Structure to design on (854 residues):
């Protein structure tokens, strides 16, 4: 890049308050951004990405403070400028696009009122601002650009809100936009459209951007340069192509290698399936969520159910566990129909099928020690008491690779996210089930931690002969661990079969859309994909 | 708008059911009292024959459901019966008193609600500042003192010096200005009593929202703190604020007995206390029913208003 320097950050330190102490979040970050340039910032959760993005606006969240360093935006020293001066830059010359547009739009006001707020404060006429809003909505490829602004946020889908938020950020033609994980909360197929719209508009308006994400493949499409953060420090920075071709730091290489895990192919199953889901129709209220859903799960195999949010993946799990009795159809276990309502199932049947949840944080009782959390199902289903129970809990902790002596008396809050998910696994194992339903169990975890959990699940499956029903929207996870794949859309099964068959062409049209939407780690992937899709259309 | 109309009708229906249950409760409770109307009227010297004759005359020999029916149908038509103490129709006695009570409640609300909202917004805006602490401490002290104590302090400060009258004498042909002047002290007392609750709920509801992502977004759009509170936090905090305001209005109508007594204000509360002392059961029943209706109506209005402030309830996808 040869353009003039727009943003210059030197030796930036940010601290966050933890009780009485201030702990470092960013430890000496340098950053240079030229006009019209897009810098990708990558790191795991807690690496300080968002803090860096906000600091570029001279902003620190409540409970955080910028404790050292220099932030210069277009020659203005943001640390020495009083708050009033910084406020005059925000929304006007530096804008922000948040991760969850659904939460970041004010539910009480229409989209266009929120769009017009800052332009009106700068003295623009309402009619001019509204006309520009429509232009930007159209550029962001929103449906009905003339009309969509007059809706409230709850009347617009997540992907559309994310684009409306980018349009709002563009309202005053800022010199710099901070994108903070703008597509993380979206489905893969929606993500493509948003990524393309963001990339085009940033290019058209020659806006500089800091693009924050944890997804390498996404940043490869968007950024000119990539900076990698780890625990508040920079690991390395390079031009996108150079970084992808030859990462230098060990940490970067490990990020690249995460998706390397793959489960060896299993022999084709024979005989009676462990669980057979037959012609299920189920739903809430007047609406049917599931229609005619059928598939089998064999012992020792992993069936992955994939689909976008709202496709009915989790409802399938609720039907199998008996939480939602189906309207038609049945669930067989060892060829025998299960009572539809879990309350009608004896404990011996309930034991057979256990669940692990997406948010380990909320799925574990924060007041119970690990001894009680893991011990309770063993006590309830298997009647273990006293020493036998203690021994079993220790055995389970060893199985999930946590050292029993130092962990058994801890509370969930003393564990990391990945460790909490391991406790969720141990709790499911304690009942000695034959089927474990994993509902998006890795979605809330960083990639490196995800890989550890997947390896653990695979090891347990081989040792204990478990069957998994793996509900996920992440196709990379499916590639890694599934034996069989069930693709769902709008509550119906679109395609199903052994993984190699489903993942090899020819695909059903929806499977093809889903598979082709998963970002790949080459900078030209998005461009190529769009060209191919438009060529077809 | 259609959905809102349906909701209002549903709530009205539920309100009628609630009032029915309450009226049965009131009627049942007076049935439980020892003795009946006839023995109360005739006193201890009455002979069994005169008692029986009066009971037949008053219809007291009929079974309770029939008597309830007669009372309830009368109430629905605005006929609360006749006072036992004064022999005047209860409806006439209530009309003027109810008007006085509502006047005082509205007067106090007109002072207290804006004051509470402004203080609540300002304390939320400058939270943890000196202003916040002083306002909170002041409001909490005012609510912590018994009402009669606040009333006497005000009389001591403002009536002893002769600025305001310590006793309220209302006459029918008084102008509004005079009325507001003579009732200022009771209204001020009530204002001090109810402001704290509403102010602290406003403050808490706003602060509760200040951690929302859309508030952070508003800050990152470079908006001023006042604008953020008024335009981005307040509209979303209205529902709990409206509820607590309605609750306090109901309190102003039903709970002001002590203040009325201190200032000799001719309101419903004082009439109720007098009637209890005279065992004038028919009047007590009527007032209890009016108080219950006030609660039902105010809560209904609060529900409807908080629905109107929420676009998610007003406009479905």
């Amino acid at each position: 890049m040869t353009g003039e320097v727009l943003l210059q950050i030197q030796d930036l330190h940010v601290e966050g308050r933890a009780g009485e102490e201030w702990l470092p979040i960013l430890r000496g970050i340098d950053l240079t951004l030229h006009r019209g340039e897009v810098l990708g910032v990558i790191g795991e959760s807690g690496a300080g990405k968002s803090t860096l993005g906000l600091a570029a606006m001279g902003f620190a969240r409540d409970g955080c403070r910028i404790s050292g360093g220099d932030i210069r935006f277009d020659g203005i020293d943001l640390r020495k400028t009083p708050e009033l001066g910084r406020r005059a830059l925000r929304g006007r010359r530096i804008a922000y696009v948040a991760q969850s547009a659904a939460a970041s739009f004010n539910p009480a006001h229409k989209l266009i009122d929120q769009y017009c707020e800052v332009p009106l404060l700068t003295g623009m006429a309402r009619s001019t601002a509204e006309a520009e809003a429509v232009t930007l909505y159209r550029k962001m490829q929103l449906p009905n650009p003339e009309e969509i602004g007059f809706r409230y946020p709850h009347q617009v889908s997540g992907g559309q809100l994310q684009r409306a938020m980018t349009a709002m950020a563009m309202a005053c033609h800022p010199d710099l936009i901070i994108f903070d994980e703008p597509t993380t909360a979206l489905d893969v197929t929606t993500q493509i459209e948003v990524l393309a719209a963001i990339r085009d508009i940033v290019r058209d308006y020659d806006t500089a951007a800091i693009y924050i994400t944890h997804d390498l493949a996404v940043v490869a499409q968007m950024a000119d340069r990539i900076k990698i953060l780890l625990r508040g420090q920079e690991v390395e920075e390079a031009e996108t192509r150079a970084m992808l071709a030859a990462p230098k730091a060990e940490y970067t290489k490990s990020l690249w290698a995460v998706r390397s895990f793959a489960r060896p192919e299993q022999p084709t199953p024979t005989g009676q399936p462990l669980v057979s889901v037959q012609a299920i129709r189920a739903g809430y209220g007047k609406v049917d969520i599931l229609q005619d859903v059928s598939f089998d799960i064999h012992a020792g195999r992993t069936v992955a159910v994939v689909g976008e949010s709202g496709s009915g993946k989790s409802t399938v799990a609720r039907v199998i566990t008996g939480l939602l009795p189906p309207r038609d159809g049945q669930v067989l276990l060892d060829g025998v129909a299960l009572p539809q309502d879990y309350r009608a199932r004896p404990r011996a049947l309930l034991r057979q099928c256990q669940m692990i949840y997406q948010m380990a944080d909320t799925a574990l009782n924060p007041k119970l020690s690990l001894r009680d959390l893991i011990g309770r199902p063993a006590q309830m289903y298997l009647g273990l008491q006293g020493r036998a129970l203690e021994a079993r809990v220790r055995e389970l902790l060893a199985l999930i690779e946590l050292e029993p002596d130092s962990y058994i008396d801890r509370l969930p809050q003393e564990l990391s996210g990945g460790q909490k998910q391991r406790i969720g696994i141990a709790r499911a194992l304690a009942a000695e089930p034959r089927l474990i339903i994993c509902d998006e169990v890795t979605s809330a975890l960083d990639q490196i931690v995800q890989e550890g959990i997947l390896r653990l699940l695979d090891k347990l499956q081989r040792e204990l002969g478990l069957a998994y029903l793996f509900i996920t929207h992440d196709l990379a996870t499916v590639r890694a661990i599934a034996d069989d794949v069930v693709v769902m859309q709008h509550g119906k099964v679109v395609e199903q079969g052994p993984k190699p068959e489903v993942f090899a062409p020819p695909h059903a049209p929806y499977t093809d859309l889903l598979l082709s939407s998963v970002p790949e780690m080459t900078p030209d992937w998005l461009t190529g994909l769009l060209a191919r899709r438009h060529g077809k259309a | 708008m259609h959905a809102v109309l349906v909701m209002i009708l549903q709530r009205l229906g539920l309100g009628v059911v609630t009032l029915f249950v309450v009226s049965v409760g009131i009627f049942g409770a007076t049935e439980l009292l020892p003795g009946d109307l006839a023995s109360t009227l005739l006193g201890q010297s009455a002979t069994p024959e005169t008692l029986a004759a009066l009971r037949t005359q008053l219809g007291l020999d009929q079974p309770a459901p029939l008597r309830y029916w007669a009372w309830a149908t009368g109430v629905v038509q605005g006929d609360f019966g006749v006072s036992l103490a004064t022999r005047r129709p209860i409806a006439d006695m209530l009309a003027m008193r109810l008007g006085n009570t509502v006047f005082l409640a509205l007067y106090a609300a007109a002072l207290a609600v804006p004051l509470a909202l402004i203080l609540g917004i300002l304390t939320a805006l400058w939270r943890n500042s000196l202003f916040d602490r002083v306002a909170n401490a002041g409001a909490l002290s005012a609510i912590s003192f018994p009402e009669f104590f606040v009333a006497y302090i005000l009389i001591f400060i403002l009536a002893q010096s002769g600025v305001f009258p310590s006793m309220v004498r209302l006459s029918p042909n008084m102008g509004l200005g005079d009325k507001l002047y003579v009732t200022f002290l009771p209204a001020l007392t009530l204002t001090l009593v109810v402001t704290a609750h509403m102010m602290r709920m406003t403050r808490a509801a706003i602060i509760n929202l200040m951690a929302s992502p859309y508030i952070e977004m508003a800050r990152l759009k470079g908006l001023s703190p006042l604008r953020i509170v008024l335009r981005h936090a307040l509209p979303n905090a209205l529902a709990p604020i409206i509820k607590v305001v309605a609750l306090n209005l109901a309190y102003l109508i039903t709970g002001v007995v002590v203040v009325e007594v201190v200032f000799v204000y001719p309101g419903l509360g004082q009439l109720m206390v007098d009637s209890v002392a005279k065992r004038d059961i028919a009047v007590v029943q009527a007032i209890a029913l009016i108080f219950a209706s006030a609660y039902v109506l105010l809560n209904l209005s609060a529900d409807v208003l908080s629905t109107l402030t929420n676009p998610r309830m007003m406009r479905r996808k």
Observations:
- DSSP finds 15 helices and no strands in chain B.
- Chain B has one domain: 90-314.
- The mean pLDDT of chain B is 86.
